[in-house]
Amino acid sequence: MSDIYKVTVKKDNDGELYIDLPNELMKSLDWKMGDELVWEETDVLGEEVEYPAAYVCKKVDWDRDIKPMMEKLK
To answer: Dihedral of CA 32/33/38/43: which sign?
Structure first.
């Protein structure tokens, strides 16, 4: 996908930050309301730019992503 989306970070009444993702993007990623997402900070942009970090958002699958990590902690 080569589309670029610009979104605004908003704050709810409890002070929690959130963004609204465009419906077109949600559909193309097969994401739905209620899906659990994980944000990962990256430094792929380097230190010479105004905003050196970028964020990657991934959909979390409990059985694939979380459960194995929890098992390792036991």
So the answer is: positive
**CB-CB contact of 52 with 39 (8 Å):** no
CB neighbourhood size of 59 (10 A): 13
Size of the chain, expressed as the number of residues it contains = 74
**Per DSSP, what are the bridge partners of residue 58?**
38
Task: List the one residue out of 74, 70, 38, 73 whose CA is nearest residue 56.
Answer: 38
- pLDDT given at position 63: 78
Is the separation of the CB atoms in 39 and 57 below 8 Å?
A: yes
- pTM to 2 decimal places: 0.56
Q: Is residue 17 pLDDT above 80, yes or no? A: yes
Share of the chain above pLDDT 90, in %: 12
CB atoms within 10 A of CB 31: 14
